Amino acid sequence: MELDNTKETNRSTPRKRENGLHLKPVSPEASGVGLPYAPVDWPKKGDVWSWKVGRRVAITGHFLDRYLYPPKRLHKLDNSTRRKRGLASKLSVERFLQTALPGADISAFFASFSWKVPAKKHSLTNVTRTFFAPPPEEIADLSVSDPQSDGVTCKAGNKKCNSLYAEAESPSLVPLPCDLCCGEPHFCRDCCCILCSKTIDLKYGGYSYIKCEATVDGCICGHVAHLNCALRSYMAGTVGGSIGLDAEYYCRRCDAKTSLVPHVTMLLKTCESIDSCDDIEKILNFGFCILRGSGKTDARELLDRIELAITKLKCGTSLEDIWKVKESAISTGVFHNGNLELEPTNHQDSLDIRPFSVSVQSISSDYQSEYLKLEYEIDQVLQALRKAQESEYKIAEEKLYGQKNYLRNLYQQLDKERSELSHRASGTKADALLNAILNRVDQIKKEVMKLKEMEVVSNGFGRTPKGTLKEHFGLEIED
After folding, report:
1. Pair 222, 212: CB distance under 8 Å
2. Which positions ≥6 away from 8 have C-beta within 8 Å?
3. Is 103 left (phi over 0), alpha (psi -120 to 50) or beta?
4. Domain Oberon-like PHD finger: where (predicted)?
5. pLDDT tens digits, residue range 414-471?
6. φ, ψ for residue 49 (rounded to 5)?
7. Backbone dihedral region of 333: left (phi > 0), alpha (psi from -120 to 50 degrees) or beta?
8. Which of 64, 94, 226, 469 would bridge 56 by S-S if both were Cys, CB 3.0 to 4.6 A apart?
9. Residue 423 to residue 434: CA distance in whole angstroms
């Protein structure tokens, strides 16, 4: 077995070798047949798999969306499908193999090709991200029905799914054929998020999800997604680069873009009928994250209304008064350009509130903009920290698994040499094999010690010795 001791010297490009294969970066939406991104002659000679990638690129330089297509012969062995469809995740591939080929060595299958597909450089440099993540807590999903209970449910087991009523409401709309996510046994396009596969939440008018109503070849897409998932995946909000979103949602299934301004308008209207300050603040912050950074005039005007409502909510304004554009001049003053100014209506009022007015105007007349500026700076810091941590994790993952694979090759070579030695009782070749085995054992011991040194990275790059980072991870840390 040939051992690949090549070390990467250029860390600005994706990994070039995996499982002994040379990985050539590809363009978005590229496709191909066989190695290095799909198996060949597996499980039988002549069985060739094909592959395809999407458009989204991860921070590591690999495509986030990649699909594997089995050879035609295997479809006859899989009772769950009668047509060719792409397998979009390792889990779906495992399920397919378990159904079509029970007892197949799944580890050997994935080791025969590279699951990760590197993107070409231009695909990375053209992508800029300007979205700011919403609060981390996930909104509760729809409760699904008890499997033992009576009643009709959708594929996901949800008895409140819109698909149960869609035919009566709009029989003329034909759903877009989908062999990707909709091919999964428990996925429903009408109530399952296309990004996380969890059910959507209809609470407060379903503000937390978006449905793609784009028409493609006379069919409606109809796939839904949590806006939280879409924001985190850079598929909603304002995103620069080749995708080019401006307060919009990008559908992973049909590539259509949907304006989110009407959705946020509905969201803001919904808040007016809610009597919980906590829920109102959560929804307003959600809308703020969707519109932030937009260059559209209507989106910016809507964002100003949301910012004003959030400020008034934090100041303890009653729920009835939060949605009023103009306040009583006697009680609270008037708003100019988003700033609260006190405007007395008579001399007596002026005498009574003047010290307070001067204090407010001198100390916090621009409170809102200063507060938002601080919030923006904190978001920037947290985003940078998250990217740094993700980058460090990917580097550690790549190097550690590379060392593990190298050791596996050494052990396999050792077994091969031992097997050859057992068939040779004596002679010059037997002595040479014995020396090779002893050298191999020493080599394995050294590589195991190297792996132990590398595992110190579990404490974090900041606590890992600089020599270890430089020697094993290719990182030079300046003092």
Report:
1. yes
2. 15, 16, 474
3. left
4. 157-289
5. 888 888 877 766 677 778 888 888 898 889 999 999 888 888 888 888 788 888 888 8
6. -95, 155
7. left
8. 64
9. 12
